[in-house]
Amino acid sequence: MTLEFEKLTPDLENMALATAQRSKLREARIEESLQTIKQYAHDWDAIENALTAAAKRSDEKFYRSARPYDHDETLNTAVSPPFPPTAATIIATDGSQIMPDRHAAHLYYLINVGGIIYPHGSPTAPTVFSEPQIFYPQEDPGDDDFISDSGKVSVERDKEEIATLARKTWENRHGALPILSIVDQRLLYWPIGGSDFVDNAAVRAWCRSMTKIREADALLAGYIDRPGTRGVMTLLRSLTAVSEPNFNWKELGKSIATQGLADRDLFRILLEPGQRSKLFIYESQPNKFFAEIDPMNEVCFFYLNPGLAGDDIVRVDIPRWVAAVPETVTAVHALIIDQCRILGNYPYVLARADEMAVVGRQDASELNFMIDIVMQRHGISTTVTGKQDSKGLARGAKSRHEGVGH
After folding, report:
1. Residue 2 placed within a domain
2. Is 303 domain-assigned?
3. In a domain, 24, yes or no
4. How many structural domains are present in the chain?
5. How far is 184 from 67, CA to CA, in rounded Å?
6. Hey, how many other C-beta atoms are within 10 angstroms of the C-beta on 387?
7. CB 100 within 8 A of CB 349
8. Can you give the pLDDT at residue 148?
9. pTM
10. What CA–CA distance (Å, rounded) separates 289 from 212?
11. pLDDT digit string, tens, across residues 67-97
12. What is residue 299's predicted lDDT score, i.e. its pLDDT?
């Protein structure tokens, strides 16, 4: 043991006191937000005025807000879970990877996309699949076309994840209707750190996959567990800020404007198990770009309490082509809740997709062994860097594979 835990005791006591104080402040702020959402629940003129002021005076680089999709449901509505359709086809994918390691014997990265095709309402067993791909320098080891940055590999994994979902959806487009394709992440996708949406090839590829799913006459949803977004809280802050002459509109969209609160802090109180919130649209530059590429790909969302009990809150993203039809929103809501009932509070199809996608340490070790055997067969020596070799000796049984994960 190298960590001297007893030296942390005073800090842990202070940490607990600070957490308790922060919790009290959060509860007071949440109560204020509940009063605001109740006050403006169907004051559509005030909501539109606040959104207009925010769009004009905020910093578009940070501004992310929620806009009510329609005036049919109040801001604080809670829709109980409907009965699921008697038959449906649910398709889910997830991705995992082994990151490139410049200290390893051979430079490569691997992407594995796993998934499931689930015949809802049928006695037929689900079909699971796993599709691994390995990537390596094609020419010189310094080949500029080879991706060696972990962030870019993650982007490639995301593209493969939704591209596989689109392909499997198209292949199963004649299955039982409705067809619901679901991915375990946001639909309003953009690479971390990306800002130039107009020229971003990854975003365009993502949108093409969304369009292909629509062309297969399927529904599409992105499932986000423990979301940190604050679009609804930003909307509520805009409503109160219009009467505050000293409000700094440039902070709108940042955590400081909503005092650290996320939307889930509000909806964990508003939503009972199984219920969903009102439908909203993202007000943001990325979503405008999505709509420019394909208007029906504009991303909307609702919050959902997926459990049988408790106040866990998830966000469900859906494209405009799903949001535009009340019956399809109902189908997405019902099928996701039905899937959550299998495991308790998380969709079964996403859990199985993750299981099929994940690349464990043993998988990585066996793959490296296979690579070594093939390389030796071709007369290529296998050596690792001194740093990597010394890590293995120093850590002994506490070894880990840092390149494996989602």
Report:
1. no
2. yes
3. no
4. 1
5. 23
6. 9
7. no
8. 77
9. 0.89
10. 18
11. 999 999 999 999 999 999 999 999 999 999 9
12. 98
Q: Contact, 67 vs 157, CB < 8 A?
A: no
**Count of all residues that appear for the chain in the document:** 406
Tokens of 76: 């604080």
Pairing relationship of beta strands 314-319 and 299-304 according to DSSP bridges: antiparallel
Other CB atoms within 10 A of residue 60 CB: 12
Residue 339 in this model has a pLDDT that exceeds 90 = yes
**Helical segments of 43-117, H only:** 44-57
Q: Calculate the average pLDDT of the chain.
A: 90
CA distances 129 to 93, 194, 406, Å, are: 9, 31, 17
Q: Is residue 363 part of a domain?
A: yes
Task: Quote the domain boundaries for residue 182.
Answer: 33-406
From residue 130, alpha-carbon distances to 8, 171, 184, 209, 240 in Å are 44, 16, 16, 19, 50
pLDDT band at 402 (very low <50, low <70, confident <90, very high): very low
pLDDT digits (tens, 9 = 90+) for 237-268: 999 999 999 999 999 989 899 988 999 999 99
Residue with tokens 């594979």: 401
Q: Is the omega angle on the peptide bond into residue 68 within 30 degrees of 0, that is, cis?
A: no
**pLDDT digit string, tens, across residues 181-229:** 999 999 999 886 544 444 588 999 999 999 999 999 999 999 999 999 9
Q: Tokens for 58, please give them.
A: 């905020």
**Short-list 72, 68, 77, 67, CA closest to 38:** 77
Q: Strands, E, within 56-126: which ranges?
A: 65-68, 88-98, 109-120
Distances, alpha carbon 214 to alpha carbons 91, 208, 220, 320, 329, in Å:
14, 10, 8, 10, 14
